[in-house]
Amino acid sequence: MNLTINTLLDRIGELPPMQEAAQKALIMIRHPDTNMRALAEVLSTDQILASLVLRWANSAYYGLSAPVKTVQQAVVVLGKNTIQSLLFAATLANLLNRPAPGYALDRGALWKHSIGVAAGARLIAARYNPALMEEAYHAGLLCDVGKLALEFYLRDVQFDREKIKNMSFIEIETGLLGMDHAVIGKELAHRWNLPVSLQNAIAFHHRPSQAGDAFILASAVHLADAATMLLGIGIGSDGLQYPLDEAALVRLNWSEDSFTELFEKIPAAVSAAVDLIGMMK
Ligand SMILES: [Fe+2]
User: Fold this and answer.
1) What is the pLDDT of residue 90?
2) 179: part of which helix (H) or strand (E)?
3) Hey, how many other C-beta atoms are within 10 angstroms of the C-beta on 131?
């Protein structure tokens, strides 16, 4: 198949862009001296985002005795990091909730998988570099978004079972389409003006030992991805072969036991995210 990166990026161009208010708010949050009042004003311009922030601040999780009635109060209760993660999850929910028949992923499967990877990546980052926890969460959410562009071209492919039996899905994508979903995901992150470290974490989430400065971030996504696959959450035709990056495991001093915490906590995070989608309807 003769696909160019531009053909695939045009396909991404057809995906819904991040809401303007969410994009503005994310830029503000990344600025070190963000004015919380201004942030609340931006969020208030979008009805869905405003109600999401309000409902989240009033959720049982925060257990506040008095109800939070304004977006201003909600912003203070939640804090910048939580709002950032919430904006990402909310923005990506509709996008990632789509079915991806080219990967045999039903509606909701890619979303559940992504939220599992995000939650797992945050846990791993907490162990190696807590300053990267939020960014790891975002990288986990976005790592497989490129599949939505590629899946269209994989729908009608008849796989030669014998030929592909020892290949990873990344090798199959590259063999058929000339690039893999990690490259496309990185390009999308670039278009969304996300930080370069996040772009690289997405680009290298299947081979983190080559991620350079983004090694911890890419490793967090890689291992969380493997754990979510092993848990069987949101896997399609690509869930059969997931080679681990041995060089990264050695560098991180990662053992089989290290997966235990992920296996325990990821399913609960996925259930909470399913509730989040329910909140947005
Ligand atoms: Fe992936």
Assistant:
1) 76
2) none
3) 8
pLDDT tens column, 239-270: 556 789 999 999 999 998 899 999 999 998 88
What's the 165 CA to ligand 1 centre distance in angstroms? 18
Rounded Cα gap, residues 212 and 203, in angstroms:
11
Please give the distance, rounded to the nearest whole angstrom, from the Cα atom of residue 143 to the centre of ligand 1.
6
CATH topology of domain 5-280: Hypothetical protein af1432 (1.10.3210)
Distance 221 CA to ligand 1 centre (A): 9
Torsion of CA 250, 179, 103, 170, to 10 degrees: -30
Per-residue pLDDT tens over the stretch 182-222: 998 998 888 777 789 999 999 999 999 999 999 999 999 99
Each domain of the chain, given as residue ranges in start order, spans 5-280
Ligand 1 centre from 80 Cα, in Å? Answer: 28
* Residues in the chain, total: 281
Q: What is the mean pLDDT of residues 50-65?
A: 78
